[in-house]
Amino acid sequence: MALIELRNVVKVYRSGSVETIALRGIDLEIYRGDLVAIMGPSGSGKSTLLNIMGLLDRPTKGLVLIDGIDVSKLSDRELAKIRNRKIGFVFQQFNLINRLTVYENIELPLIARGVPPSKRRAMVLEALKKAGGDPSWLRKRPNQLSGGQQQRVAIARAIVGSPDIILADEPTGNLDRTSAKIVVQTFLELNRVGHTIVIVTHDPEVANCCRDIFVIRDGRIVDLLEPDPSRCIVNTAR
Ligand SMILES: Nc1ncnc2c1ncn2[C@@H]1O[C@H](COP(=O)(O)OP(=O)(O)OP(=O)(O)O)[C@@H](O)[C@H]1O
Ligand SMILES: [Mg+2]
Prior knowledge:
Layout: E1 4-15, E2 18-30, E3 35-39, H1 46-53, E4 61-66, E5 69-70, H2 76-86, E6 87-91, H3 102-112, H4 117-130, H5 147-159, E7 165-169, H6 177-192, E8 196-200, H7 204-207, E9 212-217, E10 220-225
Parallel strand pairs: 3-8, 3-9, 6-7, 7-8
Antiparallel strand pairs: 1-2, 1-4, 4-5, 9-10
Helix pairs in contact: 3-4, 3-5, 4-5, 5-6
Magnesium ion binds at residues 46-47, 169.
């Protein structure tokens, strides 16, 4: 069974009298252990698609099934619960909270899930380590770190609750090449240990590290490309 299945998903945004059709009937199946890239021009619907896959937004039409469960019948509260348990997000702009320390940022999803305080510290440390971060960052504020370091903190926050699915929207979009490599390396490692990963990216060198590349154009999936691992930003020959 697919971990995430979209059936004929349509998304229409309405603001006043203006209608934008962002998705025009998407059929998509993501399986456990997949490592998928989504590519396409600006405005083609990539973020909209990711937000719907991640239950941050609802489709105008069509079905979203997570682990075979049709989520359209669930309340916002129930959706939030599934999202919290199963899905971790990573964004281009990191979306960290500068009022909080790095430690507190990574801890947030655990508080939302009701993990007792006594268990949280070990989980935060473990997640930061997996994301290639350094414990010396924990007392700092996110804005005292470099972009690449902040993205590793954001990845730690996304994985701290061991979600099945990691959805990343242009995670290397704001990073230099060295930091991008580290972030991609982290995703490859997370995928190797069983996390299902979907990465929206403009960078062919990131997409080529994945096992499937979906191409979206004008709200439709128009192509499924075979990645070329020799053009992956990190050396995957291991
Ligand atoms: N909240 C919104 N309200 C109205 N229109 C929106 C909204 N979000 C996105 N859109 C429109 O939907 C379409 C798809 O947007 P989306 O953000 O999914 O594109 P994208 O592929 O992620 O682009 P980019 O590569 O620039 O991030 C665009 O035409 C955009 O203007
Ligand atoms: Mg986008």
